Predict the 3D structure of the following.
Amino acid sequence: QSALTQPASVSGSPGQSITISCTGTSSDVGGYKYVSWYQQHPGEAPKLMIYEVSNRPSGVPDRFSGSKSGNTASLTISGLQAEDEAHYYCSSYTPNTALDRVFGGGTKLTVL
Amino acid sequence: EVQLVESGGGLVQPGGSLRLSCAASGFTFNKYWMSWVRQAPGKGLEWVANIKQDGSEKYYVDSVKGRFTISRDNAKNSLYLQMNSLRGEDAAVYYCARDFTAGTTDYWGQGTLVTVSS
């Protein structure tokens, strides 16, 4: 069982927007700004898409955005494109536990 | 260009040992925390261990404490993971990862597969 809870799957049509939620506790998501999101295509390494809740690394399209409210973080992808189809994982820094960080179980995004 | 290249994975029997290596290039290695993150087949990501820039601090997930040892050689721009007493549940792709802020990885290697089976 993953420490952070994500929906197993979401789907959307090209051009639409989708949101993936990531629910934790006050010891992780709710307590720190260090929430990140990763995209992983089959057979590839993960790629950082969002860091510190809402920041995009250089090269990540502005169609990807992040936010947080309380113990729940969200990743929103607007203007869905076929290449967005992948697994998405959230992660949170969690220094007051035995772990450095925890991940969500992952969400499979299907572009219809 | 940042590059992280893992090696050392393979098939090992339960109870056996493996040493993973990660060769880093394209950045100043000794300025970053480094981590190992694993992914069991068809499963999600799990942080395994990390190490401070100078090697003075090391942290591990509970399930590998006492069995795995993370280390680094800044002169060789290399990260290592010594894995002993391997179990079936350790089977996974192991990724070398550069940490650029707390609990956050910005670059990942391509991964090396560890299979634990008799």
Observations:
- The beta strands of chain A are 9-12, 18-23, 35-40, 47-50, 64-69, 72-77, 86-93, 101-103, 107-111.
- Chain A is about 0% helix and 45% strand.
- The two ends of chain A are 29 Å apart (CA to CA).
